[in-house]
Specification:
The chain has 208 residues and is an all-alpha fold. The protein has 13 helices and no strands. The protein folds into 2 domains: 85 residues; 106 residues, no CATH class. The protein is 62% helix and 0% strand.
Length: 208
């Protein structure tokens, strides 16, 4: 169950965050953030694929770990992102899942995953129509119940992927693809977009 997985993650990361904060007199902000990246990010994100469909309420528990850490340091979330490449958990989850979807588009994933997410042209026999020519089938037309669950699952993220610009979908590696997504968000943050941290969010109707 997602709530059990998230509670287990919190039980692991909260003591580590507290330990990092206890050393703040000995390190500057950049070093403290590096410690968080080294000792906490891996634990927080190891099960992202399994918990991605969890409710906003449950995932917000993980997001608050990041937010509270920055509050203790006296650093704004936007400054942490722009100056220390310290992206909030919700943004990292979204970019991570999009990277997994792009890996499928590149044909570098398990065949089962390729079968789960076929190209749209394979399902309706029509030429792909969308923001780019690598449109995937998101199974939305097959959903009769639990539409909210569908939108916050990986299938909801397929709709986000299908709206990406052609020059983003054309990247030949997952790393360069995710770097491009991060650059897009950094630009939005620079412009003062209040929803920059919700970018590429399949649950959010007003987030690009």
């Amino acid at each position: 169950m997602p709530h059990q997985a998230i509670d287990k993650i919190l039980a692991q990361v909260r003591p580590k965050v507290a330990a990092i904060l206890r050393t703040r007199r000995y390190y500057n902000i950049a070093e403290l953030i590096d410690q968080f990246k080294t000792h906490v990010w891996g634990l927080m994100e190891f099960q992202n694929g399994a918990i991605f469909h969890a409710s906003d309420y449950l995932l917000s528990k993980l997001d608050r770990v990041h937010a509270n850490f920055l509050m203790e340091l006296g650093v704004e979330q936007s400054d942490a992102f722009m100056n220390f490449n310290f992206a909030p958990p919700d943004l990292r989850r979204n970019i991570g899942i999009l990277g997994m979807i792009h890996k499928r588009v590149l044909g570098r994933c398990h065949p089962v995953f390729q079968k789960l997410l076929p190209f749209k042209s394979e399902m309706d026999g029509e030429h792909a129509v969308g923001a780019h020519d690598k449109q995937l089938w998101n199974h939305f037309s097959e959903v009769q119940f639990q539409h909210a669950l569908h939108s916050r699952s990986i299938f909801g993220m397929v709709a986000v992927y299908n709206r990406l610009p052609q020059n983003v979908a054309d990247h030949q590696t997952v790393a360069s693809f995710q770097t491009k997504l991060t650059k897009i968000v950094r630009f939005k943050c620079q412009l003062g977009d209040e929803y920059w941290h919700k970018s590429f969010n399949g649950r959010c109707t007003y987030c690009g």
